[in-house]
Design a protein that fits this description.
The complex is a heterodimer of chains A (283) and B (197). Chain A is α/β, with parallel strands linked by helices. Chain A has two domains: 100 residues, no CATH class; 126 residues, 60s Ribosomal Protein L30, Chain: A (2-Layer Sandwich). Helix content of chain A is 39%, strand content 24%. Chain A contains eight helices and ten strands. A four-stranded mixed β-sheet of chain A has the order 4-2-5-10. In chain A, helix 1 packs parallel to helix 4. The two termini of chain A are 17 Å apart. Chain B has one domain: Fe-S hydro-lyase, tartrate dehydratase beta-type, catalytic domain (fumarase, Alpha-Beta Barrel), CATH 3.20.130. A five-stranded mixed beta barrel of chain B has the order 2-3-4-5-7. In chain B, strand 4, helix 4 and strand 5 form a beta-alpha-beta unit. The longest helix of chain B has 13 residues. Chain B starts with a strand and ends in an 11-residue tail after the last helix. The chains are: A alpha/beta (283), B alpha/beta (197). Chains A and B meet through helix 3 and helix 6 of A and helix 5 and helix 6 of B.
Amino acid sequence: MAGLREISCRVVSKTVRDLFIEVNYRLGDDVLDALQHAVDTEDSELGRYALERIIENAEIAGRESLPLCQDTGLAVVFVEVGQDVHVVDGDLYEAIQEGVREAYSHGFLRKSVCDPLSRENTSDNTPAVIHADIVKGNKIRIVAMPKGGGSENMSSSVVLLPSDGIEGIKQHVVDMVAKAGPNPCPPVIVGVGIGGSLEMSALLSKKALLRPVGEPNKGDDRLSTMESEILKEVNSLGTGPQGYGGRTTALAVHIEMMPCHIASLPVSVNIQCHVARHGETII
Amino acid sequence: MKDIRKIHTPLADEICRELSAGDAVTLSGTILTGRDVAHRRLFDAGTRGEALPVDLRGMVMFYAAPTPARPGRIIGSIGPTTSMRMDRYTPKLIELGLKGMIGKGRRSFEVRESIKEHNAVYFGAIGGVAALMSRRVRSAEVVAFPELGPEAMMRLEVVDFPLVVINDSKGGDLYEDAVSRRGDARRPSENTPIEML
């Protein structure tokens, strides 16, 4: 049994701050490997040209501590708080917001959050969107995910008919990627959430994006099969890198699922551009 | 890429006529940046017949808002935003002399028609290579709407900006070509809403 443990809000703020700066400058090895594989298999010359520039960009950004993309995102934070943690020196949520504020200021990141109606910028990239879970243990796990607007704009939640089934879900996801076309900066990663309630399907689709690129769903063979089938169909659309044509429209399809109401089939599709940024720290 | 053509601003009519959808180019010279609010303001001023804060004739507009520059740097990371948000204002700006646009994603029918009518061109910049593009900017200064922060209009001097022609003055459309070339035979369902592709 883990004993009760105190964790200071100051540590939380610093962790959040460091994570958002780091992931905005450095692309994960899983993404880079997937991009390199795409260069090797892409048969469109313009598509390869785009993929090579994307890899070159990651090298420059990492070397010079420059943001990979000018859209440094809406700050999405997943936080898992162990039930044996006692948070001290302040308010946990405010500590996360402070970490975001410091990252976007000290890290020279763009502030991209505004009032939805007046469109007035909040000037410090807060509020972050925080998803908190209570878990076992005496640690706090923090996942930082800056999410770009272009790919989020091509995402959606719907409730299909139970009779639509697996084929209906696959068709819907492929249609979403086809409709998105060049807009979300392909090659994309397609996060799919099936089941739960409407909002839970959206959350599952976002959590699906946190898996290492191309790692299949391990819990359910039906899902890993759907992932590879949808990926194949999506990469037959012709859209290709940046919509310039080619076979690399998506690097991966990740599906997460949970049971839903007997009358419903919620499906969310969360599209992530190739600048798939996320990182985690366990305190 | 085998053939990457070097072009310069201001964009000459002759160049615009020669460029075709799918051409990779590098662009050098002076360009402007502007996004949603700047476009609305230029559109409103142009519609009212007022003088614009910038001369658009022969100009190229980059739909971009960079990250803040570190001290000692010319500019932060910079790359294209989704162009469709500028669609409703673009034909007016083309009418006022704008010759080229740099962004990402599909344009409306009205914009594509305006490009044809006025011999203009729409370039795609690769989304998400903003550190690379930042290094190709030699100078940057705010020329209008400083209160818009990162969305202020800037004048940039750029060298060898890597771009691809999406919509040309002859009606060519690279995005259309990409899906029609590969997609038809293998598209998974007839229900895919083609009009939205």
